[in-house]
Amino acid sequence: MGLPSGTRMAKLQRWEAFGCFLLISCLLATSALALTDVEVAHIVRRQLMNFPPNDELPDEAEYEVKVNGTFANHRLKRAYIGLQALKKAIYSDPFNKTANWVGPDVCAYTGVFCAKALDDKNVDTVAGIDLNHADIAGHLPAELAMLTDLALFHLNSNRFCGIVPKTLSRLTLMFEFDISNNRFVGPFPEVVLTWPAVKYIDLRFNNFEGKVPPEIFEKPLDALFLNNNRFVSTIPETIGKSTVSVVTFANNKFEGCIPHSIGKMANLNEILFLNNKLAGCFPPEIGMLTNVTLFDVSSNNFVGSLPETIAGMKNVEFLDVSRNKLTGMVPESVCKLPKLSNFTYSGNYFQVEPNTCRLPSRKNIVLDGTDNCLADRPQQKSAKECQPVVSRPVDCSKDKCSRGSSPPKPPTPKPPVHPPPPPSPVPSPPPPVYSPPPPVYSPPPPPVHSPPPPVYSPPPPPPPVHSPPPPVHSPPPPSPVHSPPPPVRSPPPPPKLAIFLPPNLGFDYSSPPPPMFPGY
Ligand SMILES: *[C@@H]1O[C@H](CO)[C@@H](O)[C@H](O)[C@H]1NC(C)=O
Ligand SMILES: *[C@@H]1O[C@H](CO)[C@@H](O)[C@H](O)[C@H]1NC(C)=O
Ligand SMILES: *[C@@H]1O[C@H](CO)[C@@H](O)[C@H](O)[C@H]1NC(C)=O
Ligand SMILES: *[C@@H]1O[C@H](CO)[C@@H](O)[C@H](O)[C@H]1NC(C)=O
């Protein structure tokens, strides 16, 4: 372990100086509460400038690992280097979570979990880092990639900023990656596409922008959270290949049609499209989603009628089509769906409502058809508001989103076929999608539909899971879903429990994260 050569030393010093600079940038941005575009560009530029060229990592020899004591093995030494780099990239750690990140026993560090290496049962390695809810401000250093046995990375509800380093493609065992509720920026972090075994990707409540790559739906994922970012993208046709049980697009600027392929999503339980710019008619294939329990397309620009095929959603409990520009008749079959507990169709231009929806046959079913154009019903739009829309209903058999199966071409800003009523503020799309988050769903409703049972056997973490319905927007909600952080270990926060690596993880991993209410 020779001393770093001159140039290497210079490089290291540059990295260190940079870390400091960057963190100050983060802190300043933090104090201002929001990052301005200029600040963001600045932080990213600095972070990029200081990432190693060609994504190469400095080899260990470049680090003068001065530590009293010895490492149990080579991998733990590399882990030490990665963890120390992370610690150095932290500017503020109000709960002192990383205060004990000192010395060679990395397995004793708070938030660091060790397990036997998958490829060598005689060797301990760092398999997980869980710093959920630590309120830490910092950034992710390229050296994090030295933790090559990392399978679980939970960073939700902190103040990390900058971008997700490309070097993390070396974390080939990554299984659960949760960086939700931070201040990450930049395009979709494509490095996640390189992980062969990743099952759970949680990016919600950050400032990612641009397109969502079609390849993400070809990964064997169980859950994908994209909500509350700044994505401006169509929903890729590849969504039909996705194995996810939960996917959230909510509160971004997704546009275009819902792809026909959606009907092929065999494992789907919950899908949230709410509050985007999606448009056109619904593809009839949504009726093939027989296992879906939650389907929320509210606050978009959908037109036409609800397809009769929706009767196929035999397991749907929560169905929200409110605040669109739907017309015609509410299909009779909808209100007869056996598991339905909350069907919200308010804020549209429906003209006919079947008796099944007026007088539901079951109790405990919440139906809301206000603010439509229903005759003889209370709280409806005025004739003046309805007339321009209902007199020119969209014929979905001719609509490119519902007809044929050629992939709808991108940006289908689908102008509402009929200009929405003049000043009628009613269906006017929700407020600015992010930043001052729309108040739209403010009082997060009590979790109606039961959360997907924690697939995970051991005592499911306390029910807190979805309970405190996260304050949807505004200051990023507490802990996004995954709250009961590391599902990987059983009892909630027991200090140090064995964590299982991917193969063992299998079903132990608490898949469908909690119910995602508003926005989740
Ligand atoms: C190692 O131990 C020596 C003597 O106990 C102490 O002076 C030094 O600061 C220690 N170094 C580290 C990195 O803890
Ligand atoms: C963290 O450590 C600092 C300095 O030792 C101390 O002042 C502060 O109270 C600690 N905070 C917590 C939450 O323990
Ligand atoms: C619904 O779920 C069941 C049980 O998990 C599964 O066997 C079935 O194939 C699913 N149905 C569809 C249409 O995906
Ligand atoms: C039903 O769903 C709507 C729309 O999301 C929500 O606002 C409402 O609170 C829910 N009602 C109940 C009783 O859960």
Strand order of the largest sheet: 2-3-5-7-9-11-13-15-17-19-21-23
Look at the structure and give the mean pLDDT: 74
In CATH, what is the homologous superfamily of the largest domain?
Answer: Ribonuclease Inhibitor
CATH architecture of the largest domain: Alpha-Beta Horseshoe
- Give the CATH topology of the largest domain: Leucine-rich repeat, LRR (right-handed beta-alpha superhelix)
Number of helices: 6
Query: Total strand count, please?
Result: 23
Strand content: 15-25%
The coarse overall form would be elongated
The CATH C-level class name of the largest domain: Alpha Beta
Regions with little confidence, pLDDT below 50 for 5+ residues? 1-21, 29-33, 405-520
Bound molecules: 2-acetamido-2-deoxy-beta-D-glucopyranose
In whole angstroms, the N-to-C terminal distance is 49 Å
What is the chains' assembly state? Answer: single chain
State the order of secondary-structure elements, H for helix, E for strand.
HHHEEEEEEEEEEEEEEEEEEEEEEHEHH
Organism: Hibiscus sabdariffa (roselle)
Region (Disordered): 377-520
Main location: secreted
Signal peptide: 1-34
How would you explain this protein's 3D organization?
The chain is an alpha/beta fold. The protein has two domains: 253 residues, Leucine-rich repeat, LRR (right-handed beta-alpha superhelix); 112 residues, Ribonuclease Inhibitor (Leucine-rich repeat, LRR (right-handed beta-alpha superhelix), Alpha-Beta Horseshoe). Helices cover 13% and strands 18% of the residues. The protein is built from six helices and 23 strands. The strands form two sheets. The chain has a twelve-stranded mixed β-sheet with strand order 2-3-5-7-9-11-13-15-17-19-21-23, with helices on one face. Strands 1-4-6-8-10-12-14-16-18-20-22 form an eleven-stranded mixed β-sheet. It starts with 5 loop residues before the first helix and ends in a 15-residue tail after the last helix. The relative contact order is 0.10. Bound molecules: 2-acetamido-2-deoxy-beta-D-glucopyranose (4 copies). One 2-acetamido-2-deoxy-beta-D-glucopyranose (NAG) binds next to loops.
